Amino acid sequence: MRNLIVCALFAVSTHLMAQPPADCQAGMAAFQQEEYKASIQPLTKCLALPLPPQTQAFVLRMRAQAFGEQSRYQEALADQQQSLALAKPEDVWPLIMLAVYHRGLKQYEEALAALKEAESYDEDGPGTGPGMAVAYHTGWTLQDMGLHQRAVETFTAAILKQPDYGWVFYRRALSYEALGDHLHARDDMAKAYKFIRPEGYNQEVIATLKQYGYTPKQKAQ
């Protein structure tokens, strides 16, 4: 999902700036290559330019995600809020990312409020309404709050919308485990292992998979 957001932001910003200034171009290129730390300085210089409000809003969202990928959630939240003040969302993603930064700061009620607002926007094109991502991030927030039964129910709704998204099975497995339902946790972890690409692994995921008896898959060369 992260790569989808990266590509979407890059595509929209490139469209808004057909011939972007050098700093904007450098920041956007580093962002697209997921070199988030390196993207901060040129994006900051880009934002110092007299950009149209909508363009500034998208660059702010880009820098917000760059901060977020480094767990600099307070800075990410500030950029995302400023972006939303400049341009109303056209889909769910700006509000989902706002919720992600609130969740990173353990501001759970604010995260849930942002996700509730996202339900009034389309996710997969005009007229589609909220999709899997809103339910997934709502479940994740409930999980972080320790509300595991509600999280399981919300993850289940997300699975109905996209039954091949491995991360929702992974997260539901963690909530099942917290509820003591080891059978369903193992079943979900098997599906997570099947669907999650190794590019998405981090140390926590690798350790969890090993606990369930799975050898982490190797990235394609």
Describe the protein:
It is a single chain. With 221 residues, this protein is an all-alpha fold. The protein folds into two domains: 1-107, Alpha Horseshoe (Serine Threonine Protein Phosphatase 5, Tetratricopeptide repeat), CATH 1.25.40.10; 126-221, Alpha Horseshoe (Serine Threonine Protein Phosphatase 5, Tetratricopeptide repeat). 70% of the residues lie in helices and 0% in strands. It has helices at 2-16, 22-32, 36-47, 53-69, 73-86, 93-104, 108-118, 132-144, 148-161, 166-178, 182-195, 203-211. The longest helix is centred in the N-terminal third of the chain and has 17 residues, at 53-69. The chain is globular and about 55 Å long. The two termini are 21 Å apart.
Question: What's the helix-strand series?
Answer: HHHHHHHHHHHH
CATH superfamily of the largest domain: Tetratricopeptide repeat domain
CATH topology descriptor of the largest domain: Serine Threonine Protein Phosphatase 5, Tetratricopeptide repeat
**Proportion of residues in helical segments:** over 70%
- The SS-based structural class is mainly alpha
How does the major sheet shape up?
none
CATH architecture of the largest domain: Alpha Horseshoe
Helices, by number, come to 12
